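Appendix B. Chain record.
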Amino acid sequence: MRKMADQNQNQPIYVLPESAIRTKGREAHRNNIAAAKALSETVRTTLGPKGMDKMLVDSMGDIIITNDGVTILDEMQIEHPTAKMLVEVAKTQEKEVGDGTTTAVVLSGELLKSAENLIDKDIHPTVIIKGYRIAGEIAQKVLNNMSEKLKVEDDEILKKIAMTAMNGREAEAYKEKLASLCVKAIRRITDNHKNIDIENVKIEKKVGDSIENSELIEGIIIDKEKVHYGMPNKIKNAKILLLDSALEIKSTEIDSKLSITDPEQLQSFIDKEEQIIKDMVDKIAQTGANVVFCQKGIDDMAQHYLSKNNIYAVRRIKASDMEKLSRATKGKIISNLKDISKGDLGYAGVVEELKVGDEEMTYVRNCKDPKAVTFLIHGGTQHVVDEVERSIKDSLGDIISALKNERVVGGAGATEIEIARNLRKYSEKLSGREQLAVTAFAESMEIIPRTLAENSGLDPIDILTSLKSKHDEGKKWAGVDVFTGKISDSWRLGIIEPLKIKLQAIQSAVEVANMILRIDDIIASGKEDQQQQMPQGGMPYQ
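Structure tokens predicted for this chain:
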């Protein structure tokens, strides 16, 4: 505390540090909403097939060029506490669905912008919060009712979902082929469409060649080379041993000393060690294994004997890659060489060492029914392959989300206009001030089609008017065709998205908007050199 009052009752009482800055009431709301709007406007221009990219340059001079919402927000090094809350919205969207981050952030910013207008009309934030919560629940019901059932075996719809995720990205020119590869990858790794792990699709990037030549490997690529030059470069009909213990003499767990008094004893000791290593390799060879992937080290002597037996070996493989190899080859990961048998081995049609760019890599391909695969991305520059990777991840996430939820909706702004139309109808049933909040929510939903129009150089007023007219006629999939500038059926255009993207975006946007609206007092404590990064305004508590 700064100081306490003396005998004089009129002297103020200070309870905060001298460096504290306090903002409260209407000013606190304005500061928070201004930060959210600024962040929303930053990513808004990236939305849609005609959205623009951002170039992000960090303190080291490294460059990222992208229009992926979560990547932009993650790399911006945001300091404002309210803006950080919107970054969390994007990260949650990315984690839960894998796509729709820009939509979630833009919608959050627009809800707060509409709330500010209502606050200026002396409508209390708690009334707005209640109205937004009601509107959010209605929006979720509308989405569920208008969504279409997905047949899990319908690869054509899944392909369209993947292509929709690639629109406006570096991969768009090759989206047909890449989308087909994405669907094929998910089909390969799927045991149960309710439980799909995207980690089983390994993504490798190599600069050089065209994006069009990106490929799906029915197996795993390991960024390691064989351990000995004498080993074969290529093994056909590979029988693979997956080993997570070292092929070397183990060190004792306690300090020990060996006394040798005779040179023959030393030679005998060396010979014994060599025999132990040879026995290990012989044990491997007896199982019929001709490829060894070892998670730990392989002794020089072991390398020699493996080479003599024409066994291809790779060492120090990551645990995650070992698990993928196990899923791809059906081999068991063995901890103890004494326990290995022929039945523990995995299978691959080919294991070979190939030079990709400047690196030697091991390809494990042509596996039988692999449950882990590798997506090899090519591109002209590092920036290109990085952006294509982000597109592929979004597409894979969308396909998985659609399969898990089994519900899909049309895109191109169709769902948002339909939600807005239904919310306006519902607001007529309300008599209190919540009606204004529900109407404001409906107007906020229109930010998505409006942004799609603006980013495409179209007149947003004309587009919104036409969209509302089509939806009033009962055409629920009427959306913006940004390439022709006309209103078209988004379903027929193949612009299809998982229902989960829309549900999660609206839910996250409502929650973060309501949380920010509840804040009427900001107390920023810290060192003086940090204060410029905090919301400004207000006086210390006294």
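Further analysis of this model is presented in Appendix C.
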